[in-house]
Amino acid sequence: MNYLAHLYLADPEPDAWIGNLMGDFVKGPLPDSLPPALQHGIRLHRAIDHYTDQHPVFRHSKRRISPAYRRYAGILIDMFYDHLLAVSWSHYSKQSLRQFTTEVYAVLQQNQAQLPPRMQGSVSYMLANDLLHTYQQSAGIARALQGIERRLSRPSSLGQAITELHTNYSGLEDDFHDFFPQLRAHVAELKQRL
What we know:
With 194 residues, this protein is mainly α. It has helices at residues 3-9, 14-22, 36-54, 56-64, 73-87, 89-92, 97-111, 117-128, 131-134, 138-151, 162-167, 169-193.
């Protein structure tokens, strides 16, 4: 899952949001210097990613991606699922997407100086481009894919892979609405154990 889903699945509190986003930026063993709430968020992020990567519906979605982009299928499905969450947000939340993203952005802005350096750059980009809210439009996902492409160490055409969303939209939408309720139930169980 990508940023929006990780934030949605986290407990609605600042440390949980920050910790869940940090999961993409803190690798290996968790430093003892991290507050317990942030460690919990990172562990939850990792558990969500593990569950997602192993799930048959997610794997089926990855197989929908054409051979030209298959190397990046996991990244693409993460992004496309965030788009599908954004467009169906009212189905999963009583709070509007705009209200949610405004609250998240305020927390990230207030805590940006304490984030790991690599995460600070990503958060700056997210805030400057209203990234999470723009996920509702395929153009927002395309812009995010272009940003990922610029950060990759080897050349790719990931920025043009938005065509995969358009080509497979109906099937991916079905996959997402099959998978996401299962993920939510799994996360509810995880929160009891972590």
